[in-house]
Amino acid sequence: MKNLKKDCFNPFFSHIYVEKSVRNHARAQKILAEFPSAEIIEISYYKDVFCRSRQSHPIQHRTQKLILAARQGTLLYEGAPVCQSFGNQYFYYVSCAMNCIFDCEYCYLKGMYPSANIVVFVNLEDIFAAVEQMLEKHPLYLCVSYDTDLLALEHIIGYAQEWCLFAARHENLKIEIRTKCANRSFARSVVPLPGVIYAFTLSPQAVIEAFEHHTPSLTERLSCAGEMMRAGCPVRLCFDPMVYVPDWKQHYEAMLAQVCRMIDMERIVDVSVGTFRISQDYLKNMRRQEPDSAVIWFPFQRKDGYCHYPNDLMEQMECFLTEQLEEKISREKIFRWRM
Amino acid sequence: MVYIFTALYCEAQIFIRQFKLVKNQENTWLQEFYNESAEIRLAVIGVGEIAAAAAVGSICALYRPAPGDLLVNVGICAHTAKNDGIFLCSKIIENATGKTFYPDMLYRHNFCEGTLVTGMLPWNGENAAPAGNLYDMEAAAVYQAGSRFFGPHQMIFLKIVSDHGAVGEVSRERVLHLMEKYQDCVLDYIGQTAAITQTGSCRRNSPHQEEERLVETICADLHCSKAMRDSVRHMIRYLTLAKIDYVSVIQDMYEKKLLPCKDKREGKLRFEEFKERLF
Ligand code: SF4
What we know:
heterodimer, A: 339 residues, 8-stranded mixed beta sheet, 5-stranded mixed beta sheet, 18 strands, 34% helix, 22% strand, B: Rossmann fold, 2 domains, elongated, binds iron/sulfur cluster
């Protein structure tokens, strides 16, 4: 019974589950055309596949499947209390895709979703309509890459590009595209827009290697961010989440030195600083899925349903980075997350 | 452990022979075979959804499958067009309710994939063609009963086509012949998948014996309450996973006579001190 062959897993997106109602949707057709040899399985509702009980994130991550569906019900969500609003009054986010091709051990998506498969909602036009409706009432700061990494999926779905075109038509809309990706082809062809902020999440290389599986290196992320800045795009740097590792000070110091070597700090829009924190319920799910992950087994402190590093450590880590950053950029540009 | 479920004894014979399974004489309500060293348990669950659900439920409740175990449902089925072939089911529809089930499609294989419809009655080829191309009488029930114990990544449904709507004409000999015909690829696939599933679950670090012993000693020496014992255990788990050298800190505390403590109050202080030295 023990003759394990190498490369036994199906390739990435070997199977694509498609809701019957979107089978002929133009975006679904375009995405399906990218995977001519995928097995297409017709489904009634994405949750029939996505929300099955007892799914295994680690195993599914080895061979993620794609689910194409229509987003129904709520299309815009108010920003969660653990998320940074960067001083914007009307802070919302949309979920046009769920889950990520990267595999960060501390990613809250592992605690939030029952599956590691990726859902793409193809009815982007309905989300656009909901945004337009809200824009009639007030301006909007909208995060479009929260429950996924849109730029990492760009070559398949092209949603970042669609959001840019949409943002270009709406002056009172500011969007944030958050990424750990180093999508150079996107960077090369990008048309800079004042209302589209590219937010690069940065971590020390030691943290990337230990916990941010399959993500680009710090150098790659920085050179992509630098390229976008030179093209004229507003770029934000997110040192959030800061992740505790032994010798964290040296690692974060070295990271910041590299950031300053590669990025013109004068020209960045702003930065965010925040240590890792997560909802208690998500953490519980994550620990069940990843019983051997050091980063999520940290003995966190609990407050109001959220888990975070002990106050002293949290304070030390955030202050350390904030103080270092204050030497490079003005204080108003530093957004520190607070409980 | 691999749990194999077949509806008929003649579907089970290749496994009984191949894995040298012996009958569990204690099981008087269904035919059950096993080989502990090969880590195989097989049950002949009978024909139809109710028989299948009852049998799968009772076997699983009795043996409590582990995260590294596998459920395999193998057997014959009808096909809307073909008379032969083997299929791995990617979608199972329960005819009576319209409910649909999706086993994970994780591993490479050489089978065709298909949608299987499970019905209460045999499909005779004359009544309306089922929504899928395959038709059987157990899989949806096996999935539903099995899903109480197994995740979708642990369930495999392999169906061998015996007819296209004339199950009454399928003899025992034909079933035996078909099972033998596909025996190699079925056994190979089960073997591969079982090994991967088990390896995947072994990755899960349960606390090492040595670590457990250490936790017990420290907790005793700190005079831990139940809650503090949990914190100590969690802390040690984290430190082990993070590869932080906590053992030398503990040794140092013993050398400096900070451990063992005289009471619970001192124990609390020492534990705080221990944490401070590490972070
Ligand atoms: S890149 Fe972001 S969304 Fe993707 S796995 Fe990592 S933390 Fe999660």
